[in-house]
Amino acid sequence: MPSAFAEPRTLDDLLDELGGVSPKRIRLNPPPGRATEKDVIRLEAKEDRLYELVDGVLVEKVMGAKESFIASILIHRLWSFLEGKELGAVLGEAGMLRLRPRLVRIPDVSFISWDQIPGNEFPSEPIPNLYPDLAVEVLSRSNTLGEMTLKIGEYFEAGTRLVWIIDPATHTAEVYTAPDECRRLKATQSLDGGDVLRGFKLPLKELFATKRKR
Length: 214
What we know:
Helices cover about 25% and strands about 25% of the residues.
């Protein structure tokens, strides 16, 4: 697929293409449109900063402590559910995935079925050619509606079957089974694994519980 940024554009045009993200998240060196997966790997190793690659543009992945905390709870619950089952693997907020050439996304949580991985041996390369069967994004202040809409479309185009958008601010979640099929969950409802993880269930009140029980 050709780059969406092959022709010269203004900064506003570029930001619109990326879903209205803040210009503070765009890496200018290497110049937008010229970045590669090697840059993603190099910057993570040398600067300990995560960048997603979108058609040659590096977009910084920003995640606060609270969002990371919520993602870690979800990861723990998913691994607990998977114990003893030969279903797949769970990745955290640094799990880079190549959805297509020149498109690297890093969901906050990913479940990848073993059906994608011959021999059930997870690839050793830093950016494997895999897609999340379940992709989870935990919203932070830097995320925009346009950015999330773009990511949801990319996930499903790559083969994803289920996307959860978790909103810590409202204690709600959106469940996508297609880019245009969304179910909004209230704080009193539960996430479930649908056809991807049959039998998995997690009440949102447990996911958002931040107080330590005595």
